[in-house]
Amino acid sequence: MSSEHKIIFAGPTGAGKTTAISQISEKPPVSTDVANSDLRYGKATTTVAIDFGELALDGGEKLRLYGVPGQHRFSFIWEIAARGALGVILIADNTLEDPMEELQFYLQGFDSFVQRGAAVVVVNRLETHPYPAEEDYVKMLMDRGTPLPVMACDPRKKDDVLTVLDVLLTVC
Fold first, then answer.
1. Does domain 4-171 have CATH number 3.40.50.2300?
2. How far is CA 136 from the centre of its chain?
3. Which of 67, 75, 92, 172 is deepest in the core (most CB within 10 A)?
4. pLDDT in tens, 76-104
């Protein structure tokens, strides 16, 4: 097994990808955030290329953490970033009008990981937007024949993000 592993963080704009990486990276992460010109997203900055961080594991192994842009127009970057990756963390933003429909786009975009079970679905902002619930995501994934771990996570909390990584490393 390689001593370095690539992990991808994917999901819609504003879901918490950059935040999650910044919480666990042992080095200041490289961020490609720029001023946001799309007012639909209600945030000052947005990722336009790839964010990058690193995390050392016990035994000397390293995780290389890549956050890909959430805008559909940048989806061509996903394939490039995903080459050689161990797995993907798909972050759903429960504040969106239809977060499960939005998640479908990322499930399709990272289908090779989804099909081999090398993915975890994270639901962000459940504390303020409890519906759809975790169980709704589990049912949707089961109905489409892609059972994956689903868990709540606040990307601002280091322990939450580390727990998600533990789960992903377990299923990979």
1. no
2. 18
3. 67
4. 889 999 999 999 999 999 999 999 999 99
